Amino acid sequence: MQAVEKQYRISDEQYDRLWIAMYEYIDSKCIVRNTDMPGKAPGSRYTWMFYLRNGLFNPEFLINLGQMFIYKMERVDYKLDFQITGLETAATPMLASIPMVAKVMGIDINSFVVRKTRKEYGLLNIIEGLPNNKLAVMVDDLCNSSNSLAQCFHKLGEEDLPVANIAFTIVNKSNDGVHEPTRLQTDMYLPKEIKVVSLFTLDDFELNNPSH
């Protein structure tokens, strides 16, 4: 019997158009270049940095992002049988927009956000939203940048919430030929069995190496 070809919701051609639109937006509006800025580490300085929140509060950017997420994740899990989560605050717009884009396509994806710190009053909750019993795919704007994915991972473990062995980010801050090849599909702060699907790397924007 001949296998039935999967009918993906977003085609390769559509994804290529979305990729170009997202690349142009990020390159022009979400990267600060040639600017002397204080770094995270005491005494350190940056000359460039991503500021993806310029996109994460733009509706067209979020609609494109939602479609690109579905394109990538549908090829990992055709049924899209998972929920999504992430650490506030960068993940929050993603957690609101991706399920809305999915809903238009007839897909139900639950989402909830993980707080950085537990509430100190009321329910004392660390989770905002209503998790279900499906595996949680963590999402964030960047990986190999800070430990926000790892914070999310550990807090989910503390709450006994099941975590998928795949995560999703907009940009993986890695360079091909500079970093270990595994870093192109992982985050340095997460267990290596969690693979990270990303839309872009540093090479796409001709940026080099620093992890900040």
Largest sheet: 6 strands, mixed
**Structure classification:** alpha/beta
Strand order of the largest sheet: 7-6-5-8-9-10
The residue-averaged pLDDT reads 94
SSE layout:
Blueprint: H1 12-29, E1 31-32, E2 37-38, E3 45-46, E4 49-50, H2 53-56, H3 59-74, E5 83-87, H4 91-104, E6 111-114, E7 127-129, E8 136-143, H5 148-158, E9 163-172, E10 195-201
Parallel strand pairs: 5-6, 5-8, 8-9, 9-10
Antiparallel strand pairs: 1-4, 2-3, 6-7
Helix pairs in contact: 1-3, 3-4
Key traits:
Rossmann fold, 5 helices, two-stranded antiparallel ribbon, six-stranded mixed β-sheet, alpha/beta
Could you explain how this protein is built, in words?
30% of the residues lie in helices and 21% in strands. By secondary structure, it is an alpha/beta fold. Helix 5 links the parallel strand 8 and strand 9. The mean pLDDT is 94.
Brief summary:
With 212 residues, the protein is α/β, with parallel strands linked by helices. It is 30% helix and 21% strand. The chain is globular and about 45 Å long.
